[in-house]
User: Which sequence fits this backbone?
């Protein structure tokens, strides 16, 4: 029989969720034997909006990794629009735009400096056997974290592939025009709701630009259509754009607990179907659930009960994101109506609190506040009254 390499914790996928899981575990228990595997070498590119909300840094700061945004200019202004409706204002806290090629490599470095063993390997087989989890033919661990993205091999092995709605997005980089400098710009489209194009200024003369929409119906979006929609909403983005990459987004639903089974295998980030269904943002969910997974693994190992990790982790994520996921699900449903999207923009333009609540709901762990709901209702009633 071939000898197996044995670890306390194996993390599959070295993106933000996986690297932070390894880092959080090692911060809690420095002597832990942690394996971090990914099918790619780093640095590597990844399709993403690249926006790093302040909520992400709140998770990374206690882990000593908030400096991953160093050297990238903070953005303080956000512009939202649909047709002639528009609101622009200063966000309560700055956002950074850091290419994933940079961010992910920095997080991997933090994890390896803390003690994780990084290995290039594509995991195809995951089997929970007795008190160990077997990975392919030569690896085993007491606890495994699946952080291997939207096409997670770990989730498939568990029979827990997220079954919620999916979106698709196409991202590139284009020179930043003067009118979009020093800001995040989001322009909602007309084709399918919710859908929008974005331009996020990196601060180095280039912007992350892209377009995304729900997948469904008889006309799934093609690459050509996504580029056409981006150019229609943000003229000038496509001709000089480069590094175009598409990516599926497994959107979060009303509740999440059913995705995570009991046992020693945990799912984090995209692998757990955790992507904001209103905005497509996933980095906060990735680092937040990655940190929770790493800490839950340590608690279970300390208790000598690795099989308890799943229950510990599920409770932690529900406590962290449960109510928020209910609110983002409701907001995403509402935003399928162009009328509601327009009313939301009007409400945010009238009321600073509504503006701030939308930012929190879309980028972090916010909720539909009473003021936001009241402002939305007022906008809808005003529009209805004007039409009669």
Assistant:
């Amino acid at each position: 029989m071939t000898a197996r390499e044995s670890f306390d914790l194996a993390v599959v996928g070295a993106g933000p969720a996986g690297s932070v899981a390894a880092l959080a575990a090692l911060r809690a228990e420095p002597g832990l034997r942690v394996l971090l595997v990914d099918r790619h070498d780093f640095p590597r590119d990844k399709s993403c909006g690249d926006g790093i909300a302040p909520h992400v840094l709140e998770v990374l700061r206690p882990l000593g990794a908030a400096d991953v945004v160093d050297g990238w200019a903070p953005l303080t202004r956000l512009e939202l629009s649909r047709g002639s409706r528009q609101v622009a204002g200063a966000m309560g806290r700055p956002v950074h735009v850091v290419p994933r090629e940079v961010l992910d490599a920095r997080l991997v470095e933090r994890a390896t400096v803390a003690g994780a063993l990084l290995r290039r390997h594509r995991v195809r087989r995951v089997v929970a056997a007795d008190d160990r989890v077997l990975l392919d033919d030569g690896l085993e661990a007491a606890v495994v974290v699946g952080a291997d993205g939207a096409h997670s091999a770990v989730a498939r092995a568990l029979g827990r592939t997220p079954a919620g709605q999916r979106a698709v997005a196409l991202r590139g980089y284009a020179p930043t025009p003067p009118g979009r400098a020093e800001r995040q710009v989001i322009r909602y489209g007309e084709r399918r709701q919710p859908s929008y194009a974005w331009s996020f200024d990196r601060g180095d003369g280039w912007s992350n630009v892209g377009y995304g929409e729900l997948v469904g119906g008889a006309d799934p979006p093609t690459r050509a259509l996504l580029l056409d929609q981006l150019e229609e909403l943000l003229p000038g983005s496509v001709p000089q754009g480069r590094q175009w990459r598409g990516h599926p987004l497994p959107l979060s639903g009303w509740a999440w607990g059913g995705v995570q089974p009991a046992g020693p295998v945990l799912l984090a980030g995209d692998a757990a179907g955790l992507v904001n269904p209103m905005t497509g943002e996933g980095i906060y969910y990735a680092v937040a659930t990655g940190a929770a997974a790493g800490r839950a693994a340590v608690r279970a190992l300390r208790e000598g009960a690795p099989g308890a990790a799943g229950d510990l982790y599920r409770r932690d994520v529900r406590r962290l994101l449960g109510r928020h996921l209910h609110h983002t699900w409701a907001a995403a449903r509402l935003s399928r109506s162009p009328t509601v999207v327009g009313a939301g923009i009007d409400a945010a333009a009238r009321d600073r609190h509504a503006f701030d609540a939308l930012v929190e709901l879309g980028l972090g762990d916010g909720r539909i506040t009473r003021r936001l709901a009241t402002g939305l209702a007022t906008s809808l009633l005003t529009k209805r009254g004007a039409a009669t």
User: Anything to note?
Assistant: The chain is about 35% helix and 25% strand. The chain has a mean pLDDT of 93. The longest helix spans residues 309-334. The first strand starts at residue 5 and ends at 12.
